[in-house]
Specification:
The complex is a heterodimer of chains A (50) and B (164).
Chain A: E1 3-4, H1 10-13, E2 19-23, E3 29-33, E4 47-49
Antiparallel strand pairs in A: 2-3, 2-4
Chain B: E1 2-4, E2 9-13, E3 18-23, E4 28-33, E5 38-43, E6 48-53, H1 59-70, E7 76-77, E8 92-96, E9 98-102, E10 114-117, E11 125-130, E12 133-138, H2 141-147, E13 153-157, H3 159-162
Parallel strand pairs in B: 4-7, 9-10
Antiparallel strand pairs in B: 1-12, 2-3, 2-13, 3-6, 4-5, 6-8, 9-11, 11-12
Classes of the chains: A mainly beta (50), B mainly beta (164).
The structure holds zinc ion.
Residues 23, 25-26, 28, 39, 41-42, 44 of chain A line the site of zinc ion.
Chain lengths: 50, 164
């Protein structure tokens, strides 16, 4: 990931593919990158890949 | 090379560019906003936040950027390619347990890892979070030092020295 304060280099950004998750505690769906997805609404780690 | 980040930041100074590395300090979600979607990246307390200034500049600006991300959780934006604004942005940010400067031969070789735009001076370097420390690997350091006279100075700087 290469992002600016501001923006980022799109050649790299195109590789930035997230995975979609649903929070089992509050129902929020979100797209996350990285190995430790956490719900952006309630900070729960109890999330499922959808 | 392993440096303690608990008391401050690490400034890696090349001839015309630099990279400032700090520790996230606490868990937060970094929001990455692209034209069509939002990506969430969990940043954990020992993860690294790196600010790269490929054309150099004021390290205090880099520190502000670092603070905007880790203290104030400012989202980062992704501009579409060719956007006239990209040329005005002289510093880039990356966060995670490992950060690879994206220059020369490193580019595209680590699709699963964090890549940060940097100048050629940082070719071959990689940074890893290591329990409050940063571990710096520099595969090409020997060759660089022998052949081109390029050198990176590594300086430890506390937050207080980077604030206005
Ligand atoms: Zn939730």
């Amino acid at each position: 990931m290469c992002s600016v304060g501001g923006p980022m280099d799109v050649e790299l950004a195109e590789r930035l593919k997230g995975k979609k998750y649903r929070c089992n505690d509050c129902g929020t769906t979100f797209e996350a990158v990285g190995k430790h997805p956490v719900c952006p609404s309630c900070q729960s780690e109890n999330v499922t890949l959808v | 090379m392993r440096y303690d980040l608990k008391e401050g930041n690490l400034l890696l100074k090349g001839k015309n560019s630099f990279i400032l590395i700090g520790r996230a300090k606490r868990l937060f979600i970094l929001f990455i906003e692209t034209f069509e979607k939002e990506l969430c990246q969990t940043v954990r307390e020992d993860d690294l936040i790196a600010v790269s200034a490929p054309e150099g500049g004021d390290p205090r600006q880099a520190f502000m950027l670092l603070e905007l991300i880790r203290e104030y959780n400012m989202p980062v934006m992704v501009l579409p390619k060719g956007h006239p604004g990209s040329g005005r942005l002289n510093m880039v940010v990356s966060a995670g347990p490992e950060i690879i400067p994206g220059c020369g031969i490193m580019r595209g070789t680590h699709p699963e890892q964090n890549v940060i735009c940097a100048s050629e001076e940082f070719s071959g370097f990689s940074f890893y979070s290591d329990g409050g420390f940063v571990r710096i690997e520099s595969g090409l350091l020997g060759r660089v030092a022998d052949n081109s006279g390029m050198n990176i100075d590594i300086v430890r700087i506390p937050d207080s020295e980077l604030r206005y």
